[in-house]
Specification:
Helices cover 46% and strands 0% of the residues. It is mainly alpha-helical. The structure holds heme C.
Length: 125
Protein backbone atom coordinates (compact mmCIF):
# COMPACT_ATOMS: atom_id res chain seq x y z
CA UNK A 1 0.00 0.00 0.00
CA UNK A 2 1.45 3.39 -0.91
CA UNK A 3 2.26 5.79 1.89
CA UNK A 4 -0.19 8.65 2.01
CA UNK A 5 1.58 11.74 3.19
CA UNK A 6 0.14 15.17 3.77
CA UNK A 7 1.32 17.91 1.41
CA UNK A 8 4.66 18.67 2.96
CA UNK A 9 5.61 21.59 0.77
CA UNK A 10 2.26 23.27 1.24
CA UNK A 11 2.25 22.53 4.96
CA UNK A 12 5.73 23.92 5.42
CA UNK A 13 4.90 27.01 3.35
CA UNK A 14 1.78 27.59 5.45
CA UNK A 15 3.72 27.11 8.66
CA UNK A 16 6.36 29.56 7.54
CA UNK A 17 3.80 32.10 6.35
CA UNK A 18 1.68 31.84 9.46
CA UNK A 19 4.61 31.67 11.86
CA UNK A 20 3.06 28.58 13.50
CA UNK A 21 5.05 26.12 15.59
CA UNK A 22 5.85 22.89 13.73
CA UNK A 23 3.17 20.30 14.47
CA UNK A 24 0.29 22.75 14.21
CA UNK A 25 -2.10 21.60 11.50
CA UNK A 26 -2.47 24.21 8.74
CA UNK A 27 -5.99 25.47 8.19
CA UNK A 28 -7.80 24.12 5.12
CA UNK A 29 -7.98 26.67 2.32
CA UNK A 30 -11.79 26.88 2.09
CA UNK A 31 -13.32 28.44 5.19
CA UNK A 32 -15.92 25.71 5.65
CA UNK A 33 -13.98 22.73 4.27
CA UNK A 34 -13.39 19.59 6.27
CA UNK A 35 -9.80 19.27 7.50
CA UNK A 36 -7.20 17.59 5.26
CA UNK A 37 -7.11 14.58 7.60
CA UNK A 38 -10.91 14.23 7.60
CA UNK A 39 -10.99 14.59 3.82
CA UNK A 40 -8.32 11.93 3.33
CA UNK A 41 -10.32 9.56 5.55
CA UNK A 42 -13.54 10.31 3.64
CA UNK A 43 -11.77 9.66 0.35
CA UNK A 44 -10.52 6.26 1.54
CA UNK A 45 -13.96 5.42 2.92
CA UNK A 46 -16.14 6.45 -0.04
CA UNK A 47 -14.04 7.03 -3.15
CA UNK A 48 -10.99 4.76 -3.15
CA UNK A 49 -13.05 1.72 -4.18
CA UNK A 50 -13.36 3.23 -7.66
CA UNK A 51 -10.70 5.98 -7.77
CA UNK A 52 -7.91 4.09 -5.98
CA UNK A 53 -6.27 5.16 -2.71
CA UNK A 54 -3.82 7.39 -4.57
CA UNK A 55 -6.43 8.67 -7.03
CA UNK A 56 -4.91 6.90 -10.04
CA UNK A 57 -8.32 5.57 -11.11
CA UNK A 58 -7.38 1.98 -10.35
CA UNK A 59 -9.61 1.13 -7.39
CA UNK A 60 -10.83 -2.46 -6.87
CA UNK A 61 -14.05 -1.75 -8.78
CA UNK A 62 -12.43 -0.28 -11.88
CA UNK A 63 -12.94 -3.47 -13.88
CA UNK A 64 -16.73 -3.32 -13.57
CA UNK A 65 -17.06 0.40 -14.40
CA UNK A 66 -18.41 1.30 -17.83
CA UNK A 67 -16.57 4.66 -17.92
CA UNK A 68 -13.22 4.47 -16.17
CA UNK A 69 -12.36 7.02 -13.45
CA UNK A 70 -9.65 9.47 -14.50
CA UNK A 71 -6.14 9.58 -13.02
CA UNK A 72 -6.33 12.58 -10.68
CA UNK A 73 -2.52 12.89 -10.88
CA UNK A 74 -2.52 13.37 -14.63
CA UNK A 75 -1.57 16.90 -15.64
CA UNK A 76 -3.83 16.74 -18.69
CA UNK A 77 -6.81 15.88 -16.52
CA UNK A 78 -5.95 18.52 -13.94
CA UNK A 79 -5.49 21.31 -16.47
CA UNK A 80 -8.22 23.84 -15.99
CA UNK A 81 -10.03 21.97 -13.20
CA UNK A 82 -11.33 24.37 -10.60
CA UNK A 83 -12.46 23.70 -7.06
CA UNK A 84 -16.05 24.87 -7.77
CA UNK A 85 -16.20 22.48 -10.72
CA UNK A 86 -14.90 19.58 -8.64
CA UNK A 87 -17.32 20.38 -5.83
CA UNK A 88 -20.19 20.36 -8.31
CA UNK A 89 -19.39 16.93 -9.73
CA UNK A 90 -18.76 15.44 -6.29
CA UNK A 91 -22.05 16.91 -5.05
CA UNK A 92 -24.17 15.98 -8.09
CA UNK A 93 -22.35 12.98 -9.56
CA UNK A 94 -22.22 12.47 -13.31
CA UNK A 95 -25.29 11.18 -15.04
CA UNK A 96 -24.74 8.19 -17.33
CA UNK A 97 -21.61 7.10 -15.43
CA UNK A 98 -20.98 5.27 -12.17
CA UNK A 99 -19.94 8.50 -10.44
CA UNK A 100 -22.64 8.85 -7.75
CA UNK A 101 -23.84 12.10 -6.13
CA UNK A 102 -22.44 12.72 -2.64
CA UNK A 103 -24.80 15.51 -1.59
CA UNK A 104 -25.69 13.74 1.66
CA UNK A 105 -22.09 14.09 2.91
CA UNK A 106 -22.70 17.85 3.27
CA UNK A 107 -20.88 20.90 1.89
CA UNK A 108 -17.87 20.90 4.25
CA UNK A 109 -17.08 17.28 3.33
CA UNK A 110 -17.62 18.00 -0.38
CA UNK A 111 -15.32 21.03 -0.26
CA UNK A 112 -12.67 19.02 1.60
CA UNK A 113 -12.90 16.18 -0.92
CA UNK A 114 -12.47 18.57 -3.85
CA UNK A 115 -9.27 19.89 -2.24
CA UNK A 116 -8.09 16.35 -1.53
CA UNK A 117 -8.57 15.38 -5.19
CA UNK A 118 -6.32 18.24 -6.29
CA UNK A 119 -3.86 17.54 -3.50
CA UNK A 120 -3.47 13.92 -4.70
CA UNK A 121 -2.09 15.28 -7.96
CA UNK A 122 0.34 17.60 -6.22
CA UNK A 123 1.70 15.32 -3.56
CA UNK A 124 1.96 11.94 -5.22
CA UNK A 125 4.03 12.37 -8.31
C1 LIG B 1 -18.83 3.54 -7.98
C2 LIG B 1 -17.59 4.16 -8.41
C3 LIG B 1 -17.25 5.56 -7.95
C4 LIG B 1 -17.23 6.04 -6.67
C5 LIG B 1 -17.56 5.30 -5.39
C6 LIG B 1 -16.79 7.42 -6.76
N1 LIG B 1 -16.56 7.76 -8.05
FE1 LIG B 1 -15.90 9.57 -8.76
N2 LIG B 1 -16.03 8.91 -10.65
C7 LIG B 1 -16.36 7.61 -11.03
C8 LIG B 1 -16.29 7.51 -12.47
C9 LIG B 1 -16.57 6.25 -13.29
C10 LIG B 1 -15.92 8.79 -12.95
C11 LIG B 1 -15.71 9.22 -14.41
C12 LIG B 1 -16.96 9.85 -14.93
C13 LIG B 1 -16.82 10.27 -16.37
O1 LIG B 1 -16.31 9.49 -17.16
O2 LIG B 1 -17.19 11.39 -16.67
C14 LIG B 1 -15.77 9.64 -11.77
C15 LIG B 1 -15.43 10.98 -11.81
C16 LIG B 1 -15.10 11.76 -10.72
C17 LIG B 1 -14.58 13.11 -10.76
C18 LIG B 1 -14.43 14.04 -11.92
C19 LIG B 1 -13.99 13.66 -13.15
C20 LIG B 1 -13.85 14.69 -14.20
O3 LIG B 1 -13.12 14.34 -15.10
O4 LIG B 1 -14.39 15.79 -14.14
C21 LIG B 1 -14.33 13.49 -9.48
C22 LIG B 1 -13.76 14.80 -9.02
C23 LIG B 1 -14.71 12.37 -8.66
N3 LIG B 1 -15.17 11.34 -9.41
C24 LIG B 1 -14.60 12.39 -7.28
C25 LIG B 1 -15.11 11.38 -6.45
C26 LIG B 1 -15.12 11.47 -5.02
C27 LIG B 1 -14.54 12.61 -4.22
C28 LIG B 1 -15.71 10.32 -4.57
C29 LIG B 1 -16.01 9.94 -3.14
C30 LIG B 1 -16.79 10.86 -2.35
C31 LIG B 1 -16.05 9.52 -5.73
N4 LIG B 1 -15.66 10.19 -6.84
C32 LIG B 1 -16.62 8.27 -5.67
C33 LIG B 1 -16.68 6.57 -10.19
C34 LIG B 1 -16.82 6.65 -8.82
Amino acid sequence: MPMLRRPTTTAIALLVLSGCEPGVTPAPSAANAASPAQSAALFLEHCAICHGEIGDGHGPRRGSLFRKPPDFRDLGWRAGKTLPELRAIIRDGRRGTDMPPWRTLGEPAIAGLAEHVLWLGEALR
